[in-house]
């Protein structure tokens, strides 16, 4: 037990190393939230283009562009995408923004397919009902189809956001000091991996649990609004 407390002191207390963990946590949350925002925006946009093209035959060129985007970012590893963005596309750009953009664009491809599936689950008769009420196609999509499709897509979206948060642990490879990179730096100084990696594992676990609780709360509120 004394040996454990000694290791804990070296990994967390000495030289205020607990501040390193908090700094890494802040970077992880910032990257994750920024990427989620970009992913949701791109996902909704691509899903709407795909859905409208299928239902009404519009946006044929945009649909082809979206298909290429989905194929590339769903068909290649996010780690490879991160390296390409860092070494080729966004050379000399801040690593923080490189990470946010990479994970956001990657997540958008998955969010798009989730939301598209949610939109297609909406009964087609509601499109006709909206039109019969005098709503144009844009208003039908925004007021009727999108809210219902989002409710259906919420559970798999939660899983995507959780996966995204865990995927950000690779940003240390481009020099960004997130939670995982902080643990690696502390291990390099203490030569003891147990405490640092258990610490960050617990921090990731807390993040995921909190996010899951928040999304389930949102899901229950949306369910009550349907009654």
Multimeric state of these chains?
Answer: single chain
Task: Supply the helix-strand structural class.
Answer: mainly alpha
> What's the rounded overall pLDDT mean?
87
Helix-residue proportion: over 70%
- Which runs of at least 5 residues are low in confidence (pLDDT < 50)? none
Distance between the termini: 55 Å
Order of helical and strand elements: HHHHHHHHH
Counting DSSP H or I runs of 4 or more residues, the number of helices is: 9
Count of β-strands: 0
- Main sheet makeup: none
Strand content: under 5%
Give me the Rg, rounded: 22 Å
Bulk shape: elongated
Architecture overview:
With 227 residues, this protein is mostly helical. It contains nine helices and no strands. Helix 8 packs antiparallel against helix 9. The longest helix is centred in the first third of the chain and has 39 residues, at 18-56. The chain is elongated, with a radius of gyration of 22 Å.
Break the fold down into its secondary structure elements and pairings.
Elements: H1 2-13, H2 18-56, H3 60-75, H4 78-89, H5 95-120, H6 125-132, H7 137-167, H8 179-190, H9 194-225
Helix pairs in contact: 2-3, 2-5, 2-7, 2-8, 3-5, 4-5, 5-7, 6-7, 7-9, 8-9
Write out key terms for the chains shown.
single chain, 227 residues, mainly alpha, 9 helices, 83% helix
């Amino acid at each position: 037990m004394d040996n454990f407390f000694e290791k804990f002191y070296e990994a967390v207390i000495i030289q205020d190393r607990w501040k390193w963990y908090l700094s890494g946590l802040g970077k992880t949350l910032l990257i994750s939230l920024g990427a989620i925002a970009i992913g949701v925006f791109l996902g909704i946009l691509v899903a709407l283009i795909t859905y409208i093209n299928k239902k009404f035959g519009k946006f044929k060129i945009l649909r082809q562009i979206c298909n290429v985007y989905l194929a590339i970012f769903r068909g290649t590893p996010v780690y490879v995408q991160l390296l390409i963005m860092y070494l080729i596309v966004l050379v000399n750009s801040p690593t923080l923004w490189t990470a946010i953009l990479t994970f956001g664009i990657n997540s958008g491809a998955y969010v798009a397919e989730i939301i598209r599936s949610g939109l297609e689950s909406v009964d087609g008769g509601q499109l006709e009902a909206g039109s019969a009420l005098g709503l144009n196609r844009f208003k039908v999509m925004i007021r009727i189809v999108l809210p219902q499709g989002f409710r259906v897509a919420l559970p798999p979206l939660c899983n995507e956001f959780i996966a995204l948060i865990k995927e950000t642990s690779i940003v240390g490879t481009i020099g960004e000091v997130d939670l995982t990179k902080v643990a690696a730096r502390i291990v390099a100084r203490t030569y003891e991996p147990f405490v640092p990696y258990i610490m960050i594992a617990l921090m990731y676990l807390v993040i995921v649990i909190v996010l899951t609780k928040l999304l389930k709360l949102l899901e229950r509120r949306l369910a009550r609004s349907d009654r």
